Amino acid sequence: MAAPKVAVVGAGVVGLSTALCLVETCPSCSVTVLADQFSPNTTSDVAAGMLIPHTYPGTPIHVQKQWFKETFTYLFGISNSAEASEAGIHLISGWQIFKNAPKEELPFWSDVVLGFRSMSEAELQKFPQHRFGQAFTTLKCDCPPYLLWLEKRLKAAGAQMCTRKVAELWDLHSEYSVVVNCAGIGARQLAGDERLFPVRGQVLKVHAPWVKNFIRDGDGLTYIYPGVHRVTLGGTREEGSWNLSPHPGTTKAIFDRCCTLEPSLRGAQDIEVKVGLRPSRRCVRLQREVLSQGGVKLPVVHNYGHGSGGFSMHRGTAKEAARLVGECIAALQGSLSRAKL
Ligand SMILES: Cc1cc2nc3c(=O)[nH]c(=O)nc-3n(C[C@H](O)[C@H](O)[C@H](O)COP(=O)(O)OP(=O)(O)OC[C@H]3O[C@@H](n4cnc5c(N)ncnc54)[C@H](O)[C@@H]3O)c2cc1C
Ligand SMILES: *[C@@H]1O[C@H](CO)[C@@H](O)[C@H](O)[C@H]1NC(C)=O
């Protein structure tokens, strides 16, 4: 069989990392990334890129832990290499703080991040309104640099990048033997999946290079995530909203909430406001499906619905998606050799 042609729809962190796993595990595959938006115009560019998982109620915890661990291990390797600055990956220490005792004393990811422990009384003095806290070291991706680094790796491995809006996955059947759907919130339309819904997030990216530690309120709403160049201040979680325009009142409210946790942010400069739609679902959809029309078949692998945790989980889900593509190719080769007999 000629080199199987695989199309990956989507150029956010999920599509690019899935395409990279594919070229790594299937060197004979010809991989094309198709997307209507590339960095810096995807949801993934808006994200803070912190590796702190959110729980998907519909996915078994041991699976989520495996995805997170694979992602953490992969990025930890990059952070310890000469690639770290170009890829925008760095270790970061900080605090997750709570007004009331946290629901889980030990979250499922506590032994994957480094040095997870309860905060000391002295540390808690920084946060007079909070009574409980967890300190740990995790990793952060600076989003546009990491996406550009993935694109560069893909091009070096011979993958094609193509700007194109896909109206229907079936439209790709005459050009590709397998299609991978990593369309983020776009999958609602592409896969006709009404269980996928947007959770709007507005954030500020500011210049405040003296802020070195992350701070996350356990309510998940207010956070301060320092990156290599900019600090991300958040945020909002608005279920069902498709509005991509920044809301000025929300910008002020986010800034005030963050200054309450970190008063030195009053001196922040060059405030930029961004909005993104988290592709949310009870669980990530990571499965094979065969589309068929008039006896013609198109194997599809879905990999979407990462919600608030696309960066935290991307490498683990990309590996699994690449494995499923391998199964599709094996099935195609099997049916071809049967046809020859
Ligand atoms: C404010 C905010 C902060 C966040 N912070 C974090 C964080 O700190 N840590 C974390 O882990 N996660 C975070 N997230 C979540 C994270 O951003 C998402 O989970 C992740 O970006 C999803 O990636 P994706 O590749 O699935 O989607 P996207 O980045 O949206 O990419 C989808 C791609 O599909 C393409 N596409 C869609 N439809 C079509 C079509 N019909 N034809 C062609 N192309 C199509 C798009 O153009 C795009 O290229 C945050 C999200 C927001 C909004
Ligand atoms: C991002 O969007 C802007 C504005 O629409 C456009 O000018 C630019 O070419 C886009 N960038 C990429 C890489 O597609």
TrEMBL record:
GO biological process, one term: D-amino acid catabolic process
Compartmental location: Cytoplasm, Cytosol; Peroxisome matrix
Residues covered by the FAD dependent oxidoreductase domain: 5-324
EC number: 1.4.3.1
Gene Ontology MF term list: D-aspartate oxidase activity; FAD binding
Signal peptide (from-to): 1-19
Record-linked SUPFAM superfamilies: FAD-linked reductases, C-terminal domain, Nucleotide-binding domain
Coiled coil: none
Required co-factors: FAD
Major subcellular site: cytoplasm
GO terms under cellular component: cytosol; peroxisomal matrix
Highest taxon above the source species: Eukaryota
Residues reported in the UniProt entry to bind D-dopa: 223, 278
Reaction(s) the record says it catalyses: D-aspartate + O2 + H2O = oxaloacetate + H2O2 + NH4(+); D-glutamate + O2 + H2O = 2-oxoglutarate + H2O2 + NH4(+)
Principal EC category: oxidoreductase
Biological role stated in the UniProt entry: Selectively catalyzes the oxidative deamination of acidic amino acids. Suppresses the level of D-aspartate in the brain, an amino acid that can act as an agonist for glutamate receptors. Protects the organism from the toxicity of D-amino acids. May also function in the intestine.
The protein's name: D-aspartate oxidase
Organism: Merops nubicus (Northern carmine bee-eater)
Taxonomic path: Eukaryota, Metazoa, Chordata, Craniata, Vertebrata
